[in-house]
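Hey L., structure's done. Input below.
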Amino acid sequence: MEGKFVLIFAILHQILARTESNLPTVCPEIVSRTRWGARTPLEIDYALIPVENVVVHHTVTNTCSTEDECAAILRNIQNFHMENLDFHDIGYNFLVGGDGQIYEGAGWHKVGAHTRGYNTRSLGLGFIGTYTTQLPNNKQIQAVKDFLQCGVELGELGKNFKLFGARQVSSTESPGLRLYRELQNWPHFTRSPPK
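Output:
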């Protein structure tokens, strides 16, 4: 029990030490849960950092091009996850909208509910939209690349983190065939998922 309190204290200290002025320059602005109208999670489980795996998904929803549109989609996803799937919160740690903004889901150093068997050892990142036959726009792709580098510089992601499409570790078509093919060209993409 004492170890859990030490971990929580270390996480809180790290959060309080971060301000807009001392974030690495590569870090994109993250739209907070408050700003998009998130519900309070029913429960929070903390993850050990740095996280060594990132699992990429698509939300299989409409795309969005403004913060208001993206926020409405996020609220619908969170409601579905909590009311229909009995999750404690929105399942993804972060999402990226067609407006090129990163949206806080469960957030940093929290256990999401995005990939059964991998939640405690990965960060779940969702592209808002459906990417089976089309790619996300350039703003989304660049925002995610900057976000991942930011995660490394903040110590949230391991320097040698592994990037996977959800289809590699789960029986799903996510993150969509076109996006999955794109991910294979990114640094950190790994063909062999963790066991």
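The mean pLDDT is 90. The CA atoms of residues 52 and 161 lie 4 Å apart.

-- N.
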